[in-house]
Amino acid sequence: MKTITISKENATLIKSILKENAKTRENLNCINITDKYVEATNGRVAVRINRDQIFSSDIENGRYKIISQVKSGKIHVDMILKAENDYNFPDCDHVFPDVYNDNIDLHIEKNATSCSNAIINLYKFTLNGYSIDYINNISHYNETWKVYSYGKDKIVSFKSDMLEYIIMPFSLSAE
């Protein structure tokens, strides 16, 4: 078992992404730690948290199942991890964009009005539909995100100094 210390905000985001995987996508029910990031995905959203946002003296790169989480001060939690080698984690280098251009600033707070406004502004910006549940996943940060669009039926990327979060669109056509 290994332990990492991570902010409550980042732990909340990871857990909200992974909870959808518990029964149907067991191979995605882990986090992936690389030299640069801590990654989590459910196939519809993905997050990359900068590695400098976790604290651990002995964590190695690899896949880890979150066994438990305990409070560690006012703003951090300790995640107890178990190495998970039964499944491969998706190569997020192919999922996360490496070019950032067309963007807007979008402030999101943890309330229904703010999240609904974010969905409307995302549609106006991208002409794509996105699930409000996935906006709710990041609303607890209460910050202004740099949001990047990659075109019709493509991901939208939310960037801050400490992480990047992407959401897949859903189809709005009645076809």
Structure notes:
With 175 residues, the chain is an alpha+beta fold. It folds into 2 domains: 2-85, no CATH class; 103-167. It contains 4 helices and 11 strands; from the N terminus they run E-H-H-E-E-E-E-E-E-E-H-H-E-E-E. It has helices spanning 8-18, 21-24, 112-126, 132-139; strands at residues 2-7, 31-33, 37-41, 45-50, 54-55, 62-71, 76-83, 103-108, 143-149, 156-159, 163-167. The protein has an 11-stranded antiparallel sheet. Strand 6 and strand 7 form a beta hairpin. Helix 3 (112-126) packs across helix 4 (132-139).
What is the mean pLDDT?
90
- In whole angstroms, the N-to-C terminal distance is 49 Å
- The largest beta-sheet arranges its strands as 5-1-7-6-2-3-4-11-10-9-8
The poorly predicted ranges are none
- The oligomerization state is single chain
By DSSP, the count of extended strands is 11
Spatial extent as radius of gyration: 16 Å
